[in-house]
Design a protein that fits this description.
By secondary structure, the chain is mostly helical. The longest helix is centred in the middle third of the chain and has 18 residues. The protein is 49% helix and 6% strand. The protein starts with 26 loop residues before the first helix and ends with a helix. The radius of gyration is 18 Å and the shape is globular. It is built from 15 helices and eight strands. A two-stranded antiparallel sheet has the order 1-2.
């Protein structure tokens, strides 16, 4: 399905549209990784420069919300993510009749209910139905007025905050992006960007925040692609190798490694009560377009091939 970027919406001055210079834009990421240097992003509006630089600059320091250094705090209804198995979720999805990653709340709920960790006790399993219902209800609020939920966003949140080692998560990230690529040891820039949109959305929702604007994720994707491949002007068909992704995610001189560490150490707690981030899309435009991150991913030939298995 096609996506609508923030630059394509709002030329008519819709009163429901959130201004593009919204001060809350991606602030939850800026709070986790705050940059020292921002000169390379001087061409961006101030709020975007800060947020993008926090995820791309080589020199950085971390500070968290509420004055806690480098701490990612899950929303109170996101704790159930720790009880879910991402491999079960993926297998259950592939075995389902779904033809898109844009699922209804009921479809998401059914997949989550069928994907608990095998290690859970009866006492831990007992409240899961209510916990999953509360989590899905919260996502519905965060994506309103959309009526669909991006399955890949939920799957990525479950995977990245799990107890898996960071190196294992890197391999899973690669496998999910390059799934069905017929043995190729790389994936396209376009696939990488679409995947990051789903990853960012899922983690934002886990922190009880709305997903960032598409332009923000595009900026970060391009910067990470440039760092990993040394290609200054990547095209949709530019390729990133598995080894390049691994180096990008393990290089402690790059903030992506710190970000993965912060995510892996996410703590339960009450969310920041500050204003939630809003994507700059009118309600009419949002209602017409289900979540496009996962759907674009699903529309790629590799995912079509996988879904047909």
């Amino acid at each position: 399905m096609g996506s609508t970027t923030s630059s394509e919406v709002g030329q008519g001055g819709n009163e429901n549209q959130v201004p593009s210079n919204n001060a809350g834009d991606s602030q939850h990421w800026t709070q986790l990784l705050s940059p020292i240097k921002r000169g390379v992003h001087a061409h961006l509006p101030d709020h975007r420069a800060t947020a993008v630089a926090s995820l791309t600059d080589g020199e950085h320091h971390a500070h968290g919300a509420q004055g806690r250094s480098g701490i990612m705090t899950l929303g109170p209804k996101s704790k159930v993510l720790r009880k879910l198995c991402h491999t079960k979720m993926m297998n259950n999805f592939l075995e389902s009749s779904a033809e898109s990653f844009a699922l209804t709340p009921n479809e998401i709920t059914a997949l989550l209910l069928s994907s608990p960790l095998d290690s859970l006790t009866e006492i831990e399993l007992e409240p899961m139905k209510e916990e999953i219902a509360a989590y899905v209800d919260r996502i519905k609020e965060l994506v309103h007025p959309l009526k669909y939920i991006d399955f890949m966003s939920v799957l990525s949140a479950v995977m990245l905050i799990s107890d898996l080692q960071i190196e294992s998560n890197i391999d899973f990230v690669y496998n999910y992006i390059a799934l069905g690529s017929d043995g190729h040891d790389d994936f396209r820039y376009e696939d990488f960007m679409v995947a990051l949109r789903s990853f960012e959305m899922g983690l934002s929702h886990a922190m009880d925040r709305r997903a960032s604007k598409e332009e923000y994720v595009m900026d970060v994707s391009k910067a990470w692609m440039q760092i990993a491949t040394k290609e200054q002007n990547p095209t949709p068909d530019s390729r990133m190798k598995h080894s390049q992704l691994y180096d990008l995610c393990t290089n402690r001189q790059q903030p992506i490694r710190l970000l993965l560490e912060v995510i892996s150490k996410a703590q339960d707690g009450e969310p920041d009560t500050g204003e939630l981030h809003e994507a700059a899309m009118s309600e009419k435009a949002q209602a017409m377009n289900p979540p496009s991150g996962g759907d674009e991913w699903m529309a790629n030939p590799t995912w079509i091939k996988t879904a047909q298995k």
